[in-house]
Task: structure prediction
Amino acid sequence: MPRFKDLSLGNSIILTNIARSYSNSELISEKVFPTVEVEKENAKIPQWDKSSFRVFNTRRAVNSGGNYIPPGSVSTIPVDLHEEELRSLIDTRENNAAEFDLQAQRTREARDGVLLSAEVRCANLIQDPGQYPDAHKNALHSADDKFLSDRSDPRGVIADGKRNVRYKIGKIPNTLVLSYSVYSRLKEHPQLRNTFNLGDINLNRSITRQIMMEEFEVERILIGNAVCVDPRTDLFIDVWNDNIALIYQPELPNKNTPAFGYTFRLKGYPKVKKYWRDGSRKVMVVEYTDLLSHHIIGPEAGYLISNTMD
Result:
């Protein structure tokens, strides 16, 4: 039986209101690494320095010359962009049989595949202890330190990380990146529940993301919900492991302001192309292409807490 029979929305397999299609949860890679557009595939990015934190003599005596900021050198980080692409094929017979926009669906499939690949790369990058200075990572080893233990101290562990980052870059981390498993455990942790179960707060009240932001004094909490299929078992596994990342990201990129990292993307991307595979005009190719690279440009603006659960 031709496979395009499954594309009918009449009384056959796929019905409009009960169509089954897996979709991933909210992806956070471009929130962890905000996008900066660049003009070339090979770029040099100015690196933040401490000049904006230096204390100068600003007082000028009468009849004296002015006060000048000493000239400084600007260091740069080389950035090479990479092409990320997926294609999907549509036979004209499939397209004619479909009672929905098959081209749009195949485009979304290609796009989602590229975005999931980017999520995995970003998760691997930010969760790699080798990306951080020694004083900016903490692997929990003791059973009592791990957050599964009611005796653990997530508030203290996170506070230590915030202090370390502040002493290095002069800024307090404003973003907390949690995996879904860590977020779920913190919602039930007695340390947080005891804090917010005082006074007139209902004992059954859930620890929300907003409450957690207040507890840890950060502007944002990003939760890595993404899953992918393990090719060895064909089962879903978490993209984000049992880790916490504390990072500082400014509202807008600025060479005078520290930042943990960015997604550098060539201007005009991503792009979608549709074309015939050959001269027969029987098979259409839907192509989704992005040209980008994820970079940690300020490792001292981050702090990794690993092994929080297992």
Observations:
- Helices lie at 29-32, 92-97, 102-126, 154-169, 180-188, 190-196, 209-216.
